UniProtKB/TrEMBL annotation:
Domain HTH lacI-type: 13-67
Signal peptide region: none
InterPro entries: HTH_LacI, LacI/GalR-like_sensor, Lambda_DNA-bd_dom_sf, Peripla_BP_I
Full protein name: LacI family transcriptional regulator
PANTHER family: LACI-RELATED TRANSCRIPTIONAL REPRESSOR, TRANSCRIPTIONAL REGULATORY PROTEIN
Keywords linked to the UniProt accession: DNA-binding, Transcription, Transcription regulation
Pfam families for the chain: LacI (PF00356), Peripla_BP_3 (PF13377)
Sample GO molecular function, one term: DNA-binding transcription factor activity
């Protein structure tokens, strides 16, 4: 066994250093540290003493080379600055930490090309992936699911494990609320055309409008950011509707700011409903009526589903889909339609 003091002090110790210091093969040192039950007690203790003396810390790449597992999960979000994803990230982080995994966070910047490219570029660095509000096509998403373990949040695609936040049902609740207030001409302020939930919400609104016998129209698309709210507010005002449902809270909050600048009273002149109930939606002026979604829970459930798929013993029985309900939270941004505007 080589003296431990002979190891170089000007660089981080490697697994090979630990093996040399303990007088065993590198593969044996790896097994002793990553799967102690596969070596005898004497060897394991010798390797552990060497690792401690050298201040050796295994990294995910080294573990991947020897075991094929990184114990890292990639979490891809469309816009890391969007508060909607804060709770997703918190939920995945907490669940992964409790399970002994590390989270690799990737911001895809609302780009399907970047999302696809990052999944391939980083493939050797993670065991599985969670895609929050993926911008990929159904065909591409299904192909990726056949190539790697993944779970999609806010997406329903055949062959892809998913956690679905049921905002379409919430949209129906929102329309029922507006109709009860006397609104008969309502706009949907559309989000990105590449957003799967955006299309689902619009279809749900069309179905509900037919049941209630009211008119709905679609305006946009708009970027799902607060800065896009000014343009959205101007378009909605020009449309002559008395109420609108926005793709998300950020867009709705941006609209509130623009309407206040223009001297338009909410909800007296226009009622607004948001979606997601992000942090701050109850602080804006007026507080926003919105669809409350179990966002953090979606992150936790996605991790549980993915880890079950990675577990060879339970992969066959792993759950394929989970649906989480939403509900309408009524605040001051919605009110009765004014007779002079209700044509």
């Amino acid at each position: 066994m080589e003296p431990l003091g002979d190891a170089r002090q000007d660089r981080q110790a490697t697994l090979a250093d630990v093996a040399a210091a303990s007088g065993v093969a590198t593969s044996t040192a790896s097994r002793a540290l990553s799967n102690p039950t596969r070596v005898n007690v004497v060897t394991r203790e010798k390797v552990e003493r060497a690792a401690a003396a050298l201040n050796y810390h295994a990294n995910s790449h080294a573990r991947a080379l020897t075991s094929g597992k990184t114990r890292t999960i990639a979490v891809l979000v469309s816009d890391v600055t969007n508060p909607f994803y804060f709770d997703i990230i918190r939920g995945t982080q907490q669940q992964l930490k409790a399970s002994g995994y590390t989270q690799l966070l990737v911001d895809t910047e609302e780009s399907d090309e970047l999302e696809d490219g990052m999944l391939h570029k980083l493939r050797g660095s993670f065991d599985g992936a969670i895609l929050a509000a993926s911008r990929l096509t159904d065909r591409r998403l299904a192909t990726l699911a056949s190539e790697m373990p993944l779970v999609a949040i806010n997406r329903q695609t055949r062959g892809v494990a998913s956690v679905f936040i049921d905002t379409p049902s919430g949209i129906e609740q929102a329309l029922g609320h507006l109709v009860s207030l006397g609104h008969r001409d309502i706009a949907y302020v559309s989000g990105p055309v590449t957003s799967w939930p955006n299309e689902g919400r619009w279809r749900a609104l069309l179905r509900a409008a037919e049941q209630y016998g009211v008119a709905v129209r679609r305006v946009g698309p708009f970027s799902p950011k607060k800065d896009a709210g000014a343009a959205a507010a101007d378009v909605v005002l020009n449309s002559g509707v008395t109420a609108c449902i926005a793709f998300n809270d950020l867009l709705a909050i941006g609209m509130l700011m623009r309407l206040r600048e223009r001297g338009v009273s909410v909800p007296d002149d226009l009622s607004i409903v948001g979606c997601d109930d992000i942090f701050g939606s109850d602080f804006c002026n007026p507080p926003l009526t919105t669809l409350t979604a179990p966002i953090e829970q979606a992150g936790r459930v996605a991790v549980s589903m993915l880890l079950a798929r990675l577990d060879a013993q339970t992969a066959g029985a792993a759950r394929q889909t989970a649906t989480l309900p939403t509900h309408l939270t009524i605040r001051a941004s919605t009110g009765p339609a004014q007779p002079e505007r209700d044509q």
